[in-house]
Write a structure and sequence with these properties.
DNA polymerase, domain 1, about 350 residues, 5-stranded antiparallel β-sheet, Alpha-Beta Plaits, MutS, DNA mismatch repair protein, domain I
Length: about 350
Amino acid sequence: MAEKKRIILHVDMDHFFTAIEERMHPEYRGKPVIVGADPKEGKGRGVVSTCNYEARKYGVRSGMPISRAWKLCPNAIYLPVNYELYTKVSERIMAILRKYADKFESWGIDEAFLDVTTRVKDYAEAEALARQIKKEILEKEGLTCSIGIGPNKLVAKIASDHQKPDGLTVVTEEEAEKFLAPLPVRKLLWVGRKTEQKLRAMGIKTIGDLARHDPTVLAETFGVIGTQLYLMAHGIDKSEVEEQRQIKSISRDITFEEDTSDFNLVLDTLEKLAEEVHNDLMRQQLYFKTVTVRVRYENFETHTHSRTLPFMTNRLQDLKKTAKELIQDYLKPERKIRLIGVRVSNFISAEKQKTLDTAS
């Protein structure tokens, strides 16, 4: 008997941070809202964490320097990142989603994949299930989400972005290639600005162009990723929906809207990411021993640098100091940075640490 074909849902909360702020402050609705650093009348540092659709109409985007957001939209409501609140809301939403799935995989704080293969008999039932999920989240949390339904994670994720906000897009296995074909290649995972430029130079602008291109040439040009891009352009993705049972690490990263060599901006943003990681750490009552920073340059060359401390700690100053020291080697005037990230790992619970402290 043939194995049943997979049906995957990708659930993506709409402008999550700002949506929560609007829920708490109804007077913000209909106005541009920007969550991130303090703009200090255009002189602030750091970047936009997220913004609502009203702010996006002014050209504001995640990862944009806050000073630029201020120039584009000085009348917006600017709010600090309230990560503790967003995480609590996220946990409740993930609990709702988890009960609908055979296999569940959270994808950051505001997205998740659900494998519903054995829960539904076809795509019509999957669509009804998605509507039920949207209804429950709206009733219980007052928030909207966009859901993509597809034969794999790749198609489901691209589908969820297709009709934002509050969208629902169904793409069957038979429709996948046709659905992907007109979309810009940038929609695919691993296609950033530089790869997009390289593909454009080869006459490849859409996913359909990529699907029709010679796979041998793609493999010669991009290596293993070239083969992967070719398969993805045909809507092929075999990756499983997998849940991490045990927390191995906590991380945050951000892609700057424009590659930057403004190292004050990089360091300020690194501090903010460290604070977000630390909030998560405290909420889960964990001590850490290893700090890792990740840096991606404009050409997509990516480096990670870790340090294991000689002691367990949960102090924010230890995390910030170590992260800043680790990133120093990568701050080179001639190289622009595209992405930075902070990760902590090598955990022990606060309870266990207390026991160790008492014993020592």
